[in-house]
Amino acid sequence: MKTVPNISPQLYSWMRDIRKTIHQHPELSFEELTTAAYINQKLSEIDIKPVRRIAGTGLVAEIGPPNAPVIVGLRADMDALPITEATGLGYASTNPGIMHSCGHDGHVAMLLGSAALLQKMELPGRVRFLFQPAEEKGNGAEKMIEEGGIKDLAAIFSGHIDTHFETGIITVDEGIICAYADPFLIQLTGSCGHAARPHECKDTIVAAAGLITSLQSLVSREVSPNHAAVLTVGKIRAGEIHNVVAGEASIEGTIRSTHQDARKRMLAGLKRMVNGAASYYDVKAELKFFESLPAVINSCTAASIARIAAQTVVAEKNVISQGPSSLGGEDFAFYLKEIPGCMVRFGAKVSDQTGPAHSPTFDFDDGVLPVGASWYAQVAQTYHQEYREL
Ligand code: NI
Known about the structure:
The chain is an alpha/beta fold. It has ten helices and 16 strands. The protein folds into two domains: 9-178 and 296-389, Zn peptidases (Aminopeptidase), CATH 3.40.630; 188-289, Alpha-Beta Plaits (2-Layer Sandwich), CATH 3.30.70. 35% of the residues lie in helices and 24% in strands. The structure holds nickel (II) ion.
């Protein structure tokens, strides 16, 4: 099997510069114009062209023998979050209120690093690099698919930085690694009136409070204890002033689950409880679901290729399982509904003091960049090699 060469000090510093530049100039979902232009410039530095713009701000480029029938996809996401950075880093965000707090700056740097590595190697098949917008919004992957981003791909691979693990660790798992995510909105409508005369009104705050408390019994009473699930209410809005009974209330939350049966039961239970609350508290209750995310389910074959690649890049003992599926969502799931593939995690822990992903103090160890770049390049080589032997 072809093994990718070690990352040279020059390539490492090229990737670190990319990471820092993108970190300094974070952009929100579907607004990654500067990021896309910068990636395009970096691809041309390593002689990769043409680069196709798709899904608004996304980019796709291919290398390898022109007529090779098999194309393997490597994907990185490129968007940031609406968070005000508080890391104090020398290359902290210069865009107020926006921060790369999930490591997508690192994902782009790694994928470009892998492109630089593969560009210098003989390739038995084609490799497509997919720089995807709007992962945080949850629909960048769908747009990429709609616009032909994965057309003719035999398989797709991706990785996510994970600061729960030390640098040098790669986690590889078959099956589910990220949960089904079902965001919802409950709108309660009653009627306003004087705080001293509640019998003349329909109080939606009392209804909301009762309903929210009841919803927490769904996980403990509706779902098998062997299946992971969570229901979080993250936002409530109701009322205007202390002496007026609130006639309107809205509740927003999300259901996460790692098993279809658990998901069905949670969704059915939510509907039942919302309807029940309407009659119990004599208010109008409407339930709406926002766009849901499927679970990330790695195929067995793709996971075994991802594992072989990981074991080639880091010591075998450093290729481990992530443990039970995360309850987080990840739109890489949409690709895996269409074609086989696998997502792995790259350890990148800085210290116990650093904040978690999606926090204002999130940071990751740059030492992950060579690991990720080597894995991306190796998984493409390994895929082509194994495919020929299948
Ligand atoms: Ni992320």
